[in-house]
Amino acid sequence: MPTNSLCSPVPPSRSLEPPEEPLQTRLHRLVNPNFYSYQDAPWRIFLRKEVFYPKDSYSHPVQLDLLFRQILHDTLSEACLRISEDERLKMKALFAQNQLDTQRPLATESVKRAVVSTARDSWEVYFSRLFPATGSVGTGVQILAVSHTGIKLLRMVKGSREAGGQLQVLRTYSFADILFVTIPSQNMLEFNLASEKVILFSARAHQVKTLVDDFILELKKV
């Protein structure tokens, strides 16, 4: 289950990030079953579902409950930039219909499934991996979102509420529209579509291409 520690995306910037240094890791074999752990640690670790893969399933009761609780928390906290105001209002209406709140997050499996399905299938940005990106001058593109349905070009706009802004979708392309993706030069992404080409620039170009290629390959197998 891909995870992310934050709900809000990387702050948008038109400047490219410095390339990451290559990392090498080694898997050390466990030789002793004993282990040490922290007790009464002053911190907590939060794991999040960030993006669905084409063959992802949430049929297991634990997976379903974790997804449900994540969506419930993010909807009621009103601090998640991945949820639009309209999406939040509609989800709150679904919560009210089923008498759900953070103090009493008890729900049947059918209600949990309805909540998760609504967020997965109708929310535009929530279950997406976000990459800082820029387009040509005048396009306003600041972020590229990759989800199980395709890619979206986003920018940050001021919300109607005083605190923070919200993500606005500029263009949407489904995976059926994308023929293939290339990297003509460093930090440059070229999306070859059936009727046009989309050029973006991102320091995460190789990560974007790998993810999009994997999704297209998986969808062909479905």
Strand-helix topology:
Layout: H1 61-77, H2 85-97, H3 109-122, E1 129-132, E2 143-146, E3 150-158, E4 165-174, E5 178-182, E6 188-193, E7 197-201, H4 205-221
Antiparallel strand pairs: 1-2, 2-3, 3-4, 5-6, 6-7
Region (Disordered): 1-20
Organism: Gulo gulo (Wolverine)
Protein name: Unconventional myosin-XV-like domain-containing protein
Structural summary, described in words:
- The chain is α+β, with helices and mostly antiparallel strands.
- It has 4 helices and 7 strands.
- The longest helix has 17 residues.
- The two termini are 19 Å apart.
Order of helical and strand elements: HHHEEEEEEEH
Bin the strand percentage. 15-25%
Radius of gyration: 20 Å
Q: Which regions contain 5 or more consecutive residues with pLDDT less than 50?
A: none
Strand order, largest beta sheet: 1-2-3-4
| Structure annotation, total helices | 4
Give average pLDDT, whole number: 85
**Topology, number of strands:** 7
